[in-house]
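Long-time lurker, finally posting.

We've been working with 4-diphosphocytidyl-2-C-methyl-D-erythritol kinase (Bacteroides luti) and I want a structural starting point before designing mutants. I don't trust myself to interpret raw outputs, so I'm hoping someone here can both generate the structure tokens and explain anything notable. Sequence follows.
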Amino acid sequence: MIVFPNAKINLGLNITEKRPDGYHNLETVFYPVHIEDALEVVPLNDSDKEFNLQVFGTSIAGNPEDNLVVKAYYLLKERFNLPAISIFLQKNIPSGAGMGGGSSDGAFMLKLLNDKFSLNLSDDELEVFAAKLGADCPFFIKNKPTFATGTGNVFLEINISLKGLYILIIKPEIFVSTRDAFSLIKPAFPEKSIKEIIQSPVEEWKDNLINDFEKSVFAQYPEIGKAKEKLYEAGAIYASMSGSGSSLYGLFKAPVENPELIFQDYFIWQGEL
Ligand SMILES: C[C@@](CO)(OP(=O)(O)O)[C@H](O)COP(=O)(O)OP(=O)(O)OC[C@H]1O[C@@H](n2ccc(N)nc2=O)[C@H](O)[C@@H]1O
Ligand SMILES: Nc1ncnc2c1ncn2[C@@H]1O[C@H](COP(=O)(O)OP(=O)(O)O)[C@@H](O)[C@H]1O
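Top reply, 14 upvotes:
Generated this for you. Predicted structure of 4-diphosphocytidyl-2-C-methyl-D-erythritol kinase:
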């Protein structure tokens, strides 16, 4: 069985409060985008191993046991009698980019195992398992535009469609630590909620829809801030960093021609929303 875990972008991101457990409450809109990994599971016969993982494409740091697809397998194996499996993962989504690629792989693994081995878990139950894998994971179970609060785990499905627009995603060769990015923020509630702002036309988002991580991340890595300006120069009607970076996206009315000439040596992906 093969599935295609997709990425997400954040439409606005407000860090509202620091919690007693050290985590932060936030408000954001998660929006799915079609850049995809590929994840396949087949039975593993004649082996004394419980799993075998092969990763292709972009490399991921860490041991196989640290991979979120393997963590997802063990999470379900604690409760269900799962057989040994071979896992093939083609990584296309840049890792640690604020695009939720690893989180999506983990969530899609839960869904795949649920279907393949007829575990009969509901989406709500899968979301509970996904929350144990990481803050961003539960969103990818239903995978629909969502207004998220709490640590990013309390969901309200929202009615927003960016269909017809084009998206250009870029990522400089800079790694931003999510943990460090949070530590540089002074949490505050925004004057106007993201939920309200995104009901206005996209052309009006530029000065209103804010990602709170941008200020400190751009101060630390001016190149990322300059890349955002270049997205506007290329004609974006709205541009932002996604999550804690370092990826950025621009929304456009028409595809950008030859983006590789503007963003040399960057990861680049362009598609229709
Ligand atoms: C901020 C977001 C917005 O989408 O960033 P991106 O990962 O997309 O960049 C996410 O909520 C990130 O989710 P995720 O990347 O799954 O975070 P985790 O691995 O669970 O946490 C990494 C670290 O970030 C901090 N953290 C994370 C989430 C949160 N609500 N408050 C925090 O303070 C904690 O220090 C934690 O140890
Ligand atoms: N299947 C996977 N794909 C990508 N990263 C993974 C995966 N499994 C575990 N990770 C780890 O998760 C972290 C990045 O998570 P990811 O969701 O891709 O990025 P982000 O949280 O920035 O959106 C990295 O530290 C990486 O080592």
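Before you design anything, note these points.
The domain at 2-157 is CATH 3.30.230.10 (Ribosomal Protein S5; domain 2).
Residues 21 and 218 are 27 Å apart (CA to CA).
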